[in-house]
């Protein structure tokens, strides 16, 4: 399917074990310390908790393995997204953003970049390459876009952005490194919210930035240390634990989503279904080329806002909640936040329930409509 090589999930489980010395704990210790024992010459030793923490470093090693790139951990997806903006942009620069991607990214540009003299344009993800990339210092890509699940050609766009002298940044939250590898496709930087599937249990916020240019990563590390946008060690420790089962959960979630999307596409209650894995999806051919899986998000459009709300309320195995990627399936009518989607559009985030039990609950709730 995809043209890139997936990360080794087996290797991930043995990263720590390989470097252990006799008597050390197999599980990752949680280090809570702002200060380090540091007499004399400080060079080459951890000095202060805003710059270094061994628990973050273990999580970064795991994520670096998954991304095959140097990785920095941030306290949320938005902190990860803000990092390349504040690190690489100067007054007078122009940025290109998806008009249909994660809303808060546009809000960050509108509220905080523009007053520093950085201007931005927006384009819909499905037509992101129309108009070229000349004059953009940074081009921000989100594919599949959240919540509409449109795609754009990451390799073609990253290549065109580089030729035009800009930096490409891809938000890979909806796919994780197991589903899509933007750096292998030629992007400069990957950002992601690990609050979603990587955390997977709806109990932490976290994010990361990965890249293969040592100079860019050093600059991003300085941004993190100086701005103080650092993750909490306990949340980092929880993410480390979650990453050990990411491949297992993601595989189950995607497989179930594929099954449910196909059945929804044939369901009389569904007006429209978007899922990149459906052969009828407008983005299907591109998805096959650049994604290793089809994801666990489904865009389900029902007849009206009322029908959508009734469906979500009636289904016992859908948590009515914003955000996604947890072990429990969840659903949300995105128009309630003002996203540019139909009033009856529901973002279904498939979790780890056994597929047939989940389908029976979804089908039952759809049939319940008066
Ligand atoms: C959730 C999300 C974010 C923001 O992540 P937080 O961890 O909530 O800060 C960014 N991009 C996408 C695509 C998301 O879904």
UniProtKB/TrEMBL annotation:
Gene3D superfamilies: Aspartate Aminotransferase, domain 1, Type I PLP-dependent aspartate aminotransferase-like (Major domain). GO terms for molecular function: cystathionine gamma-lyase activity; pyridoxal phosphate binding. Belongs to the trans-sulfuration enzymes family. This is Cystathionine gamma-lyase. It comes from Albidovulum denitrificans. InterPro entries: Cys/Met-Metab_PyrdxlP-dep_enz, PyrdxlP-dep_Trfase, PyrdxlP-dep_Trfase_major, PyrdxlP-dep_Trfase_small. Its cofactor is pyridoxal 5'-phosphate. The modification N6-(pyridoxal phosphate)lysine is found at residue 196. Keywords: Lyase, Pyridoxal phosphate.
